[in-house]
Amino acid sequence: MRLSTVILPTDRWHEGGRAKWRRAEELGFHTAYTYDHLSWRTFRDGPWFGAVPTLSAAAAVTERLRLGTLVTSPNFRHPVTLAKDLITLDDVSDGRITLGIGAGGNGFDATALGQEAWTPKERADRFGEFVALLDRLLTKDAVTERGTFYAADEARNVPGCVQRPRLPFAVAATGPRGMRLAARYGQAWVTTGDPKLYEEGAPEQSVAALRGQIDRLGKACAESGRDVAELGKILLTGFTPDRNRPLESVEAFVDFAGRHRELGFTEIVVHWPIPDSDFAADQAVFESIATEALSRLG
Q1: Is there a contact between 216 and 178 (Cβ–Cβ < 8 Å)?
Q2: How confident is the model at residue 298, as a pLDDT?
Q3: N or C: which end of the chain has fewer CB within 10 A?
Q4: Is the pTM above the cut of 0.90?
Q5: What phi, psi does 191 have (nearest 5°)?
Q6: CA distances from 210 to 192, 195, 197, 241 (A)
């Protein structure tokens, strides 16, 4: 199992931002992700920086740490411009970028460009077209395509990604259409659990729901002629009924990670502590988890 973190882009680079990314590498995290939003939930009225420039800066101050988004969505991105940014990020980082990608939701990003929020069906329709076109853009030197929602006209992407045939996709999905996209295009699959259980569910119910999601992923892979074992299975924590309790102690995290490793998860992602927020946690305990927990899983 791998242990990763997500660092929200809330700090000025020279007032704590740079230090967090460097520390993430020192602590031995596999990947440090950031959210790709224009603003997000309770952080909307405070500092919030762009994901692509943040990852570029992080690539410049780290050497081994993988970097990525968790997740990018079509809400305010276009495949043509995103592909150019990703190829550049992959080059700057010397092949350390993972693209977490999802359909998006009804948050602030959904209407920030002046559009009406899309229906769930339209989000799914756009997501399918978005991922397919992005895959082509990242693997072909030139792409021309006319879709329902997105188009490319001789879009050039030379020299392509450092990682071949392209940087990996970690596809966030819980529904059948998203699962099929993960099976076809993903190198990993991402979930936050069942959102209906967050407020009043129990950890045991969450484990059962996650087991069901992994079963459905397996069926989607079988339908695509793919071995589900080829996909990494990533759990972004903080959104299950456990909330932030796994970060209360090393023992609590080992118990949580062990239960989810048994389900088949290969990577656990924890939020870097942010005081006075839903992601508040003791920094010393957090760092002990980073350096000790995986060895105690056995």
Answers
A1: no
A2: 75
A3: C
A4: yes
A5: -140, 155
A6: 9, 11, 11, 12
